Structure of Protein-lysine N-methyltransferase EEF2KMT:
Amino acid sequence: MAPEESVEVADLLRSFERRFLAARALCLFPWQSLEEKLRSSSDSELLLDILQKTVRHPVCARHPPSVKYTRCFLSELIKKHEAVHTEPLDELYEALAEVLTAKESTRCYRSYLLPSGASVTLAESTAMVSHGTTGLVTWDAALYLAEWAVENPAAFAQRTVLELGSGAGLTGLAICKMCHPRAYVFSDCHSRVLQQLRGNVALNGFSAEPDAAVNPESPLVTVAQLDWDVATVPQLSAFQPDIVIAADVLYCPEVTLSLVRVLQKLSACRTDHTPDIYVAFTVRNPETYQLFTTELGQARISWEVVSPHARKLFPYEEHSELGILKLTPQAPSTSLPWDGLSCGKLPPPLHLRI
């Protein structure tokens, strides 16, 4: 195999591996590239390699996607094989037979591979919106913020991190495993989200119990119920955050306004310094994004757009427009008026789906 072809095959395998473990929509898999490779070679070794990187993956063996998802994936893989090769591939049919007789569980998993070789595994709902909340699934902005954090570990090393709206926990767990924070506070307000979040924290080897034995190499982890609308400055001050993060919390005007109010309160929590704040977002409605930046100005919180980074680590949805804002609250002791021009220029217009 030529070096160029070897690189292409490795990239193809990596793409299948990451998408399958994360249970991404089957239409997002590189099926056309696979067909082209299969037609250019009579060897079935590539299909066996894909099988090992997906259904037979060690992570998948411990924490598999849903049975229905695995069945659909294998059926599609067999279709691609049959369209090119006349001889059946027993390993594919054996894997399909196993999943056809498997019982569907009430819980399924998504796993995300990290550069260290470790992974973040989440138990998630298969419904887009479940039990009246969107916090039971992982959204692309959480992946985007996690990838930025992995590339910028110094921003979190030996610091106390407060995450607002942690949801399923992907961003925080990636930071805890890769960025060496001193302490990490996961927070959310919905009871079912918190229940799932605590399970995901434990699933990934962290304990949120205050009396549990602490691994000196692991951060002190807390899972807190936090309602932005009723949170008080004393309550927020108890967290003593050095850095505050949030991902995909700009999805409606009401939540956006609540977020700005809680960020105002957080800016008054530390007398020695204001926390660094990073908010990652997918702009679904440009008006909501504009509302957020306008309200930040009213709250005397300056902001700047963080330079975009390549989306190489995690499998994202196609065509999603993602970004991160770094917010800088004005220190409480400062009496100078906020100047809207000091926060920099607006980012270029985003042509986005509403």
